[in-house]
Design goal:
611 residues; 7-stranded antiparallel beta sheet; 2% helix; elongated
């Protein structure tokens, strides 16, 4: 009987707690981004930038010939399909995509045996494809600064590198292959290359060659002179033979990266090993699988600070497995998640800048295969969910599975589903509700009867937020702005107001209730009047109504307008002032008391000067 690993037990315990805890994000089942058709072929790749923009790329037949299409993800929704290999006779295949902020995309694919690169500058249209050369198995990664590296296997069995410049948007092929020995066949089959790029624009490529896994850095248009052989001569007392299936990702700091790969041994077994790059060297290998079953298809994903998730699947049980790199930059003990599968699953993991991660797998526990996901928040397991819909038909595990996350932990998962005549490219999601936010309008006394309400914007990357404003529990506004001017005057006294932020998927969060203290009454004003010939003396005493209690804003000013065009007298409170009229005539003298929210009381008196 196979014992569960330590991590598996920990994940199970955490899962029991997480199910009872309030949900911080929700699963949304898959939606087709293309109409069901016998022409849908295979998923290529999906990627999200940190700002929540990105794209999914895949192949579908047009007139019986496979072509490459992209659906961009903008504002929380997929846009109309765009064909990327327009003008190429095809057939096309193996599209891969990298995304960075602002909608910038770098895409590679193969068409009629030629590898191509495509760029979509931020805010612009896709440029025409650029040919790299004859080859296969392309990979691409786009940095947060807009530079990209792509790798592929040439028709002569060499690993070649192309670079996309962020300033000119031009692709250029590095002059020499990455191979250790150009005479060797490199990057073929399970030795296919993978590439990653850091925030400072330095790349790293890994590939298999002559039974070993290698890694090499790229600087601008050149290759490092110090390629690294990652295959150890032995591991844990077992003699190494062939290494293959490498994958790589890098932190924002190009000094640090992880490469994972499958290591075979002379005794017939295998392990999934990982090696961390520090500068130009790699640390000794560590095992990231559980060790109780041979595993395959290792993948790794890092966030900018170096936290990482590695995924793989058991060879005999087909059960997904994962391992995490913690803040100490160390992997733990690999553990099983989800459940065993009747058929070999596809398994992939992704981790975001807020340390939220997710594993997606295609599992056939009973009946048709389905897409199952397991989220983890700072390493703590959350509720397992199913994203595939039974009404779309069986999930096609052989047609591809991929997942990508933004900086806030929103995740898109893409796969292919349906029968021969109604296949769909499907994308499900794990989306966080809008972030908590606060009202800004002050709670101290006092406000006018038509106050302006202001609040903090709720954080959300996927689409616009709608704000519903209530006062005393009654709805008064629905807006996408972060302010609202009350139009219907409020009554005197204290009111309560609140704002609910709702995203495009219907997820909501409410602000805390805040008070509005409304001073709706005009101030009281006592006026004394004396006149002697042309000299008028005014005594004014303004005050708030004592009945207002806490909703009295206080007196702001008293203004005495003499009505003869001379400068008015002003005071902050009670005042006694004298004025001499220069000419005979009839004048309207006005005494106005104004409180601090603008309520006014005016007393008028007609003054007749006859001498």
């Amino acid at each position: 009987m196979r014992r569960p690993s330590i991590l598996s037990l920990v994940l199970s315990a955490l899962l029991a707690v997480a199910v009872a805890a309030p949900a911080r994000a929700n699963f949304f089942v898959g939606e087709a981004i293309d109409a069901p058709s016998p022409d849908a072929r295979a998923l290529g790749d999906i990627d999200l930038a940190r700002d929540g923009t990105g794209a999914v790329v895949y192949t579908r037949a047009v007139g019986g010939i496979d072509h490459v299409f992209a659906a961009r993800f903008v504002g929380g929704a997929f846009q109309s399909l765009e064909q990327l290999d327009v003008g190429l006779a095809g057939p096309s295949s193996q599209p891969m995509v990298g995304a960075s902020d602002g909608g910038r995309l770098a895409i590679t694919f193969v068409s009629a045996g030629m590898v191509y690169g495509v760029v979509r500058p931020a805010g612009a249209a896709f440029a025409p494809p650029v040919a790299f050369g004859p080859g296969d198995a392309p990979a691409v990664d786009l940095s947060i600064n807009g530079t990209a590296y792509a790798s592929y296997t040439s028709s002569t069995g060499d690993v070649r590198i192309a670079r996309l410049d962020r300033r000119s948007n031009a692709w250029s092929l590095l002059g020499a292959p990455a191979d250790i020995d150009p005479a060797n066949i490199a990057g073929v089959g399970a030795d296919r290359s993978k590439v990653a790029i850091s925030a400072d624009g330095i790349g790293i490529v890994t590939w298999g060659e002559a039974g070993h896994v290698f890694a090499r850095k790229m600087f601008n248009g050149g290759l490092s002179n110090a390629p690294q052989d990652l295959t150890p001569p032995d591991f844990a007392g077992r003699a190494s033979t062939v290494s293959d299936q490498p994958d790589v990702d890098v932190e924002d700091d190009s000094s640090y990266a992880w490469v994972v790969f499958r290591q075979h041994f002379a005794d017939g077994g295998s392990r999934i090993l990982a090696r961390r790059q520090r500068g130009t060297q790699f640390d000794p290998p560590v095992a990231v699988d559980g060790g109780d079953e041979a595993t395959t298809d290792p993948r790794i994903d890092l966030n900018g600070r170096g936290l990482a998730i590695a995924t793989m699947a058991g060879v005999s049980t087909h059960q997904p497995m994962l391992n995490l790199v913690d803040v100490r930059n160390a992997f733990g003990i690999g553990g099983r998640i989800m459940a065993p599968s009747l058929a070999a699953p596809a398994t992939v993991g992704t981790i975001s800048e807020n340390n939220g991660s997710l594993v997606a797998a295609i599992i056939s526990a009973a009946g048709d295969p389905s897409v199952v996901v397991q989220p983890l928040d700072d390493g703590k397991a959350g509720e397992v969910g199913t994203l595939s819909r039974p009404d779309f038909g069986p999930v096609d595990a052989a047609a591809g599975l991929d997942a990508a996350s933004d900086r806030a932990g929103g995740v898109l998962v893409a796969w292919v589903q349906g029968g021969a005549d109604d296949k769909r490219i499907v994308v499900g999601s794990y989306d966080r509700a809008p972030g908590a936010f606060l009202g800004y309008t002050g709670q101290k006394c006092c406000r006018t009867v038509t106050p302006a309400l202001k609040w903090q914007q709720a954080f959300n990357l996927w689409g616009a937020i709608t704000y519903d404003v209530t006062i005393d529990g009654a709805p008064v506004a629905k807006t996408t702005a972060d302010t609202f001017q009350v139009l219907t005057p409020l009554t005197n006294g204290t009111h309560k107001w609140q704002v609910t932020a709702t995203d495009i998927r219907g997820q909501s969060v409410r602000s805390k209730t805040r008070l509005l203290r409304i001073d709706a009454r005009r101030p009281l004003l006592s006026v004394g009047y004396k006149r002697k010939k042309r000299v008028v003396t005014i005594s004014a005493r303004p005050r708030d109504d004592a009945r207002l209690a806490s909703a009295a804003s206080g007196i702001d000013s008293v203004r005495i307008s003499w009505g003869d065009g001379t400068r008015a007298a002003r005071a902050k409170g009670a005042v006694r002032v004298t004025h001499r009229y220069r000419r005979k005539g009839s004048y309207t003298l006005t005494v106005t008391a104004r409180d601090k929210v603008g309520n006014e009381t005016a007393v008028k008196r007609t003054v007749r000067i006859t001498k």
